[in-house]
Design a protein that fits this description.
This protein is of the alpha+beta class. 26% of the residues lie in helices and 31% in strands. The protein has five helices and nine strands. It has helices spanning 3-6, 26-32, 80-92, 141-150, 157-168, and strands spanning 10-14, 20-25, 36-44, 50-55, 66-67, 70-73, 99-104, 113-121, 133-139. The strands form three sheets. Strands 6-3-8-7 form a four-stranded mixed beta sheet, sandwiched between helices. A three-stranded antiparallel beta sheet has the order 5-4-9. A hairpin with a 5-residue loop joins strand 1 (10-14) and strand 2 (20-25). Helix 4 packs across helix 5 (157-168). The mean pLDDT is 93.
């Protein structure tokens, strides 16, 4: 049943290779532990600092943990990049050109979501959605890596994975 009839988000259920099997409402996807898709977006300012946010207390998964600038599920039938643009605008009010940087295949570290990381360089003033975001900060990558080493549980699972990837692949982090 379409989202407009159920008032519930619909996601594509995918296999381990990220091939769509069928679509289902959010409650079924999460309740059944089905593989699905998500995007994370990093906003990096002209000083090279990453905008991170503290997830709102009311979030279903990993509330009050630090994570990417913006993130969210890919809706049924939606492309990763379209989702990334939408999430960045919805969560932070930022419209920017995105570059795809990395993909992590589904597993425990991503909440069973195939997750693509997009990034942009922007000094736009973010307008955080209070339903999604409790606090925002700009931090240098060195400070983030130090914090990750000292207190990994302060961060969401996928954000930890992307931070580890970025530490090992800094040379690949370029904007188109």
């Amino acid at each position: 049943m379409p989202e407009e009839l159920t008032n519930e988000e619909w996601f594509d259920i995918v296999d381990e290779h990220d091939v769509v099997l069928r679509s289902a409402p959010r409650s079924e996807v999460h309740g059944g532990g089905y593989l699905h898709r998500a995007t994370h977006i990093w906003v990096i300012n002209s000083a090279g600092q990453l905008l991170v946010h503290l997830r709102a207390a009311g979030k279903e998964e990993e509330p009050l943990k630090w994570t990417s600038s913006a993130s969210g599920h890919v809706s049924a039938g939606e492309a990763y990049e379209v989702s990334a643009v939408r999430e960045l605008l919805e969560e932070l009010g930022i419209d920017a050109k995105l570059t795809r940087w990395h993909k992590i295949m589904s597993g425990p570290e991503t909440g069973y979501e195939h997750t693509e990381l997009y990034a942009c360089q922007s000094d736009a003033v973010p307008v955080p959605d209070p339903k999604e975001i409790s606090e925002i900060r700009y931090l240098d990558f060195a400070a983030l890596y130090d914090w990750l080493d000292r207190e990994p549980t302060a961060f969401t699972h996928p954000f930890r994975a992307f931070l580890r990837w970025s530490r090992e692949n800094a040379g690949m982090m370029v904007f188109e």
